[in-house]
Amino acid sequence: MRQAGRYLPEYRALREKLSFIELCRRPEVAVEVTLQPLARFDLDGAIIFADILLPLEGMGIGFHFDAHDGPVIERTVRSATDLRGVRAGDPAADVPFVFEALRLAARELAGRVPLIGFAGAPFTLASYVIEGGHSRTYAEVKRLMLTEPATFARLMQLLADTTIAYLLAQVEAGAQVLQLFDSWAGALAPADYERFAAPHSRRVLEALCGHGVPLIHFAGGAGGMLAQVRAAGGDVVGLDWRVDLDRARAELGEGVAVQGNLDPAALLGPPAEVERHAADVLRRAHGRPGHIFNLGHGVLPATSPETVARLVEFVHDWNGGD
To answer: Are 209 and 131 in contact (CB under 8 A)?
Structure first.
């Protein structure tokens, strides 16, 4: 989860020279950032450096990042009128730099570790498009969802179409695993998630089935609706830290793997606490196959790289003991 980023000094050195969006748009630099964590840590995979908003570029929805790298949507969609002119994107033409970065990274990583591609789920993308950026309440999203359901559904359809094309192009470019991030799914009540969001994630994930890549489906804050998340699809369900891993696996049942779910803030503690929290996650996995150890969300900027290195070593050395 966000292997490369603000916690690595080598990343910060690049950011002193280039803006966040420039890092994304320059394939050779995006590959450098993708590979930075592997030069430091004995990781089992690499995730391409990109941003979930990039597919919006060809949809007629402008965006930029502010001084703190926060997303700012330039054309919000809050009514049927706002939706005029918004179209499904053609990612291969709109963001070719993402796929060039994937091709370069795949060559660099050949035979080492899998290369993971990703995209934002339709609901999470819609949240940005409607709210105009980050939100605490998602009030505008829910207002449109409930007062103009046809408008909301049309926006979700356009986002799903674009996301499908984006992820299929990532597979063609060399991605060996795909992850769908529905980071803000937990803002919805379970019934609203089932009605308004899950069908569109399901359509994306079903379109990717049969293309030879495992699919990871992460829904943040979704501990109260894991059955709905699993029903939406994916070979692996990503779990955040707000649910115990063993309880989540019991609710998900057989036939699906899980990824997670250490609280990222645990890495801010002393080594003994980091190990205690990691051991708790590993014990709850009970040695059952189909667990990818990971954080429950991205690495926090204040995290020490040395702590990450110790965590990776601890997990690799784990033998089920105390």
So the answer is: no
> What is the reported pLDDT for 3?
59
| Sign of the Cα pseudo-torsion (250, 258, 190, 192, in order) | negative
Give catalytic residues, as residue numbers. Answer: 2, 6, 15, 51, 128
- For the chain, list residues with pLDDT below 50: 322
> What is the chain's alpha carbon radius of gyration, rounded to the nearest angstrom?
19
> pLDDT tens digits, residue range 270-322?
999 999 999 999 999 998 899 999 999 999 999 999 999 999 999 999 987 54
| C-alpha to C-alpha distance for 261 and 279, rounded to whole angstroms | 11
Minimal CA–CA distance to 175: which of 45, 22, 307?
A: 45
At 165, list the tokens: 């094309």
Q: Which residues contact 61 (CB under 8 A, 6 or more apart)?
A: 73, 74, 75, 77, 86, 129
pTM above 0.90, yes or no: yes
Question: What single letter denotes the amino acid at residue 295?
Answer: L
Per-position b or e across 99-134, b if 16+ CB within 10 A of its CB: bbbbebbbeebeeeeebbbbbbbbbbbbbbbbbbee
